[in-house]
Amino acid sequence: MNYNWNWGVFFQSTGIGSEIYLDWFVTGLGWTIAISLVGWLIALVLGSLLGVMRTVPNRLLATIATTYVEIFRNVPLLVQLFLWYFLVPDLLPEPLEMWFKQDLSPAASAYLSVVVCLGLFTAARVCEQVRTGIQALPKGQLNAGYALGFTLPQVYTTVLLPQAFRIIIPPLTSEFLNIFKNSSVASLIGLMELLAQTKQTAEFSANLFEAFTLATLIYFVLNMSLMMIMRWIEKRVAVPGLISVGGK
Amino acid sequence: MISIQNVNKWYGDFQVLTNCSTEVQKGEVVVVCGPSGSGKSTLIKCVNALEPFQQGDIVVDGTSIASPKTNLPRLRSRVGMVFQHFELFPHLTITENLTIAQIKVLGRSKDEATQKGLALLDRVGLAAHAHKHPGQLSGGQQQRVAIARALAMDPVVMLFDEPTSALDPEMVNEVLDVMVQLAQEGMTMMCVTHEMGFARKVADRVIFMDRGQIVEDCTKDTFFGDINGRSDRAQQFLAKILQH
Ligand SMILES: Nc1ncnc2c1ncn2[C@@H]1O[C@H](COP(=O)(O)OP(=O)(O)OP(=O)(O)O)[C@@H](O)[C@H]1O
Ligand SMILES: [Mg+2]
């Protein structure tokens, strides 16, 4: 292949202000992290709640959670994003709609849409992991909690969830990594996260290969670091003799 | 202390308990035995409302389980229960296992709960293991911790559901010794067990169940002393387990 590699491109001026191309990548990475972490927070809280709902002895709550999971898992992520960005604002009450469309900057409204979208999408997946974790525990644990006088919420918070979360750290880790990878859909509604900055760099500088190589490297290092953090957490909370799902 | 009054329970069409009635007096030790599937676990779980029943009532220390006004968590906090598979909380240390319910259910301070828990741990001979997790103890040790955990709540009665049947034979005695001591101190106990040696030693009464019914309910001396006066089913059962 006859291609003139130019790794110095990242330090060249973009021609916009005093920015160099590397600045774009830094900004993009910042957005990617901001989308993913906030999305993950929503997914973890909502997903745990839904996971609990699927296991409590209450038909209505279980049905609500199951329906949620079916909907959010079976509609493609991109479709969900377009719904949140293009359709949902129109369905909001007038003041909220105006706020979303006029008061928010384009970046802010795109950010809001993608965070909500990824959070709710990933919540369905977290829900299933939490449910699996709870159901993997021996039924006797619930009875032992009850027998000591715990109420149902106490049984969940002190007996079931601490164990369930420990055993689902490996599958939760992959959901956590997925949300970082999925965050690139934000580029499709104009949010300048990592992928969008990469494309822009490629177009502006014509150094397509360098741009995408750097982006690949950043995603890779990011994911490896996250995985290491999760491994570290897993080790920290490990308990002798506790079962594990999804392999060690 | 416990009054079981005409309890009937179904799983769908299948009747697990049929007209079960008996009384356990304060300080009494009652052993429940019977073939597998006869409903022993179901009955004992009904006593602290871990299993609902459709008809009849069980009154524990003056509190009716069937009454919708009863605060079940409160009732259960006064009834100790020991399970076949120990059911210690594996993510908590032994000390935390002994204190968590004292703190969260009874509202005791951490210091008070720890003091009480460690004293009981010492009593079951495991003071040296306070900082460990359940997974680091043998089955017999875990079961002794489980007994201590139940006792920490100052229960008015203790329920045991085959506490030794998941144990290796060499560990059975260390658990039975704790139970014997408890019985001799006057604890009210209802024990599902096939350990007839234990029954002979400390039981006041023996209940024999078969197919969801209480077939025999008599004093230990009658049960073991007058074998020919027992029902056929009880005789067959005794012949089988006394062979071993
Ligand atoms: N959740 C359930 N649904 C349907 N049937 C059940 C359920 N739990 C128990 N049973 C049935 O009820 C009967 C009594 O069960 P139980 O566990 O009380 O017997 P057991 O006397 O304790 O037996 P074992 O000595 O094996 O422990 C059994 O036939 C069992 O199959
Ligand atoms: Mg049983």
UniProtKB/TrEMBL annotation, chain A:
InterPro entries: AA_ABC_transptr_permease_3TM, ArtM/GltK/GlnP/TcyL/YhdX-like, MetI-like, MetI-like_sf. Gene3D superfamilies: MetI-like (1.10.3720.10). The keyword rRNA-binding does not apply. It is found in: Cell inner membrane; Cell membrane. It holds the Pfam family BPD_transp_1. Residues 29-230 form the ABC transmembrane type-1 domain. It is a multi-pass membrane protein. The chain crosses the membrane at residues 29-50, 71-88, 108-127, 208-226. Keywords: Cell membrane, Membrane, Transmembrane, Transmembrane helix, Transport. One of its GO terms (biological process) is amino acid transport. One of its GO terms (molecular function) is transmembrane transporter activity. GO terms for cellular component: ATP-binding cassette (ABC) transporter complex. PANTHER family: GLUTAMATE_ASPARTATE IMPORT PERMEASE PROTEIN GLTJ, MEMBRANE COMPONENT OF AMINO ACID ABC TRANSPORTER. Belongs to the binding-protein-dependent transport system permease family. HisMQ subfamily. NCBIfam families: HEQRo_perm_3TM (TIGR01726). This is L-glutamate ABC transporter membrane protein /L-aspartate ABC transporter membrane protein. It comes from Insolitispirillum peregrinum.
From TrEMBL, chain B:
Residues 2-236 form the ABC transporter domain. One of its GO terms (cellular component) is plasma membrane. GO terms for molecular function: ABC-type amino acid transporter activity; ATP binding; ATP hydrolysis activity. Keywords: Amino-acid transport, ATP-binding, Cell membrane, Membrane, Nucleotide-binding, Transport. It is found in: Cell membrane. It is a peripheral membrane protein. InterPro entries: AAA+_ATPase, ABC_ATPase_HisP-typ, ABC_transporter-like_ATP-bd, ABC_transporter-like_CS, MetN_ABC_transporter-like, P-loop_NTPase. The keyword Membrane applies. The keyword Disulfide bond does not apply. It comes from the Bacteria. Coiled coil: none annotated. SMART domains: AAA. Belongs to the ABC transporter superfamily. This is L-glutamate ABC transporter ATP-binding protein /L-aspartate ABC transporter ATP-binding protein. It comes from Insolitispirillum peregrinum.
